[in-house]
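Worked example

This section walks through a single chain of length 116. The input is the sequence exactly as stored; nothing has been trimmed or padded.
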Amino acid sequence: KDLTELSVLTLNTSFYYKRINVKVALPQSSKPQEKEAEATCNTLMQDRKYYMECTIVRIMKARKVMKHNLLVEEVLKQTQSRFFPDVQFIKKNIEALIDKLYIQRTDQNDEYEYIS
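Given that input, the structure is written out below as tokens.
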């Protein structure tokens, strides 16, 4: 049976066991574990975001100008040792770096330029 907060437990005083200690398993609350898992997930996503931004800036600093497809390919190559990002995550971080003025789009829409 599953125990809930409304469960009633009674003590059997006539119970006898040869050993002195009897181990009773206590129910584990899942709420703190869920909060901890959510906090860990948020921290992991934040770390991945920073790592992705650093990787993109490092690549752009070395290449100065790069086409979108080549940049995505290079980012995938360099980040695969840590995690496998999806293309949407890479695009989102490129947009964030454009907003932060680390890179900019050139006259050709599919090309980026590093701003020094």
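What to look for: The first strand starts at residue 65 and ends at 67.
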